[in-house]
Amino acid sequence: MNIFRLAGDMSHLFSILLLLLKIHTIKSCAGVSLKTQELYALVFATRYLDIFTGYISLYNTLMKMFFLWSSFTIVWYMRYHNVVRRSYDKDQDTFRHYFLILPCFILALLVHEKFTFLEVLWTFSLYLEAVAILPQLVLLQRTRNVDNLTGHYVFFLGAYRSFYILNWIYRYFTEQNYYKWITWISGLVQTALYADFFYYYVKSWRNSERLQLPA
Amino acid sequence: AKELCKKDEL
């Protein structure tokens, strides 16, 4: 484990904690896309099936369990919690997330390293994670006035992806036979999706004003 | 056959 990987994982953890904090203490999920959260739950559920088949480290297992638990908890809050579900912007969150799932699945059936059940699901989760943020970005753009917590949440998610790219570069030069084309390309696509958001986030931060995305 | 990379990342 190198410093970039650790920083990436911590940003990811922190972004989820921010979101849970917002939902649990303020009892609001305004500006949060349920579509994106459902996609993440599906991403983790299909990727971390390997909890049962292989052991890497206690750190890996605990993180995987946390990501699984937190993603399903957030979806539960937004769908079923008496107070939280009322703050959900259902009419704005209209992205057809089903249209992302099917193409990712077909792509995983066609492009993978090995044609086995777990391997295809793992690949599917990589493709799906790359585009899972789209409903959230669309919702942010529609809401215009983004509240701070939601903005920070997306920022730390993007930071997580950026650190992972540094981690791959580092590992490529320090380890032998470290090639992961599928992971790299989907990771690059995913990070690129944040570029526009980052630009406006940094701009609003420098001018110390509220984050506003252009229509 | 090419060995698959160990999936040690999250």
Strand content of chain B: under 5%
Portion in strands of chain A: under 5%
Structural class of the secondary structure composition of chain A?
mainly alpha
Global structural class of chain B: little secondary structure
Radius of gyration of chain A: 17 Å
Domain module count of chain A: 1
Q: Could you tell me the number of beta strands of chain B?
A: 0
Provide the helix percentage of chain A: over 70%
Write down the overall geometry of chain A. Answer: globular
Task: Describe the global form of chain B.
Answer: rod-shaped
Described by strand count, sense and barrel closure, the largest sheet of chain B is: none
Extract low-pLDDT stretches of chain B: none
Largest sheet geometry of chain A: none
Terminal Cα separation of chain B, in Å?
A: 25 Å
Number of helices of chain A: 8
Gyration radius of chain B (Cα, Å) is 8 Å
Distance between the termini of chain A: 41 Å
Mean pLDDT across residues of chain B: 70
Q: Which properties best describe this structure?
A:
heterodimer, A: 215 residues, mainly alpha, 8 helices, globular, B: 10 residues, little secondary structure, ER_ret_rcpt (chain A)
Task: Describe, in plain words, how this protein is organized in 3D.
The complex is a heterodimer of chains A (215) and B (10). In chain A, α5 packs parallel to α8 (181-206). Chain A has helices at 3-25, 34-47, 58-80, 98-110, 117-131, 134-143, 148-174, 181-206. With 215 residues, chain A is mainly alpha-helical. Chain B is low in regular secondary structure. Chain B is 0% helix and 0% strand. Chain B has no helix or strand. Chain A: Belongs to the ERD2 family. Chain A: Pfam families: ER_lumen_recept. Chain A: Keywords: Endoplasmic reticulum, ER-Golgi transport, Membrane, Protein transport, Receptor, Signal, Transmembrane, Transmembrane helix, Transport.
